Amino acid sequence: MLKRPRAAQWAGLALIAALAGIAAYFLSRILLAPEPAPQDPVRPAMIPESRPDISLADRDGRQRSLSEWDGTPLIINFWATWCAPCRREMPMLDALARDYRQQGFEVIGIAVDFREDVLKYLETTPIDYTVLIGEQDGMDAARAFGMQTIGLPFTVFTDRRGRIATVHVGELHRPQAEVILSAIVEVDSGGLDIEGARTRIRAGLADWGRAVR
């Protein structure tokens, strides 16, 4: 029986190993990638009354807990590098972080994505707010906010007591953010209760939606 030269055998094994590695890489990305957003707008199954205390790694790999921002009204934005509306709204979120910092607000970005992809993206897209990163734990964090089907982007707004005023699903625009933030400012100053703020936010966003149609 004829035997293949040893070099050919090694070449064949190397090719098989390379193909297996490529297949494993793409399979891992499929398994870890967030679920695709359906055509109809995604809505949280049940929004918790208050912000859950989740922990994720920041850009430096240090574990950070949302409890670090207790006493601070937050804008918590869930995003991913592969999500076009997420990328579009980031400059606006960066501007909000600067413009509303004097009123006590902080923006927290939570990337539901592969760490290496996020770090590479942020090298070319500098932003002036904290970014936390998670793959499976990022999806778990999204579910903790009531998102059983994960559609990105979505943004959570809380008052200084950690109560969730609203969850906005989809690309956020500056006028929408200002409707929400103005209501939260009034809650934190004692001029409005949280239920009144939620009602005002729903009405204000509905009015904005009708105006831009």
Note down, in words, how this protein is organized.
The protein has 2 domains: 7-36; 55-212, Glutaredoxin, CATH 3.40.30.10. 45% of the residues lie in helices and 17% in strands. It contains 6 helices and 7 strands, in the order αβββαβαβαββαα. A 7-stranded mixed β-sheet has the order 2-1-5-4-3-6-7. A hairpin with a 4-residue loop joins strand 1 (55-58) and strand 2. It starts with 5 loop residues before the first helix and ends with a helix.
Summarize the structure in short.
This protein is α/β, with parallel strands linked by helices and 213 residues long. It folds into two domains: 7-36; 55-212, 3-Layer(aba) Sandwich (Glutaredoxin). The protein has helices spanning 6-32, 84-99, 115-124, 136-144, 174-188, 194-212; strands at residues 55-58, 63-65, 74-79, 106-112, 130-134, 154-158, 164-169.
